[in-house]
Amino acid sequence: MTYIPPHLFSMICRVAANRAYYFEFDDWRLKLRNALFEQSAMAELNMGFDTEILFTEDPKQNLCKYQLFKYTDCLIQSLQEIENLYNWRFFGIDCVNEYETQFLKIASLDMVHNFEKPEFFPQYKTKIIEMINILLVNKYGYELRSVDEKYIKLDPKQGLFYCPDDKSEVNWYDLIYMIISPEAKQIIPQNMLEEFECQELNYQFNINFL
Known about the structure:
Blueprint: H1 6-18, H2 27-44, H3 59-77, E1 82-83, E2 99-100, H4 102-115, H5 125-137, E3 143-146, E4 151-155, E5 160-162, E6 169-170, E7 175-180, H6 182-185, H7 190-193, E8 197-200, E9 205-208
Antiparallel strand pairs: 1-2, 3-4, 3-7, 4-5, 5-6, 7-9, 8-9
Helix pairs in contact: 1-2, 1-3, 1-4, 3-4
């Protein structure tokens, strides 16, 4: 793993813990949130810390950790070069009002890369592509979102995901959910839907990839 200075590791973990509300909580996610606070405190006190942060061999849990740090990184990368981080006291972080964010941004990217291990994630890429192809063949639309809240499309010919706004390629493991109509849900085989957490609302059907 890439070395990350303790004070930056502490900041990133604390921000991630506070942003964990973005994901639905279950017992393991609550443990992860608590572990992030714990490791943040240990790093802040220079007591040593666990870089794995609640080690797990469960593919979904590995993906959850990665996406949480990716989501946190989206916030950190959006900061100005010199940023007033007074409001980060809400996260339990004391920063000077004019904070140079360069090294925090580098450390945050390193943290994302440390947990970016697709071989240990659930292998959803083929399943997601198959579902979208079924929708397209039957003339149904879909709304696909990435962890940074971008609209994502599939290039069926190349089997690649991309953002239409900036034409950038998107990793399949950065996808968080897809919304389709209740009618479209009827044409997708039940065994494919059972792979994911699904929620049926009045006018839409949500397929969550975590």
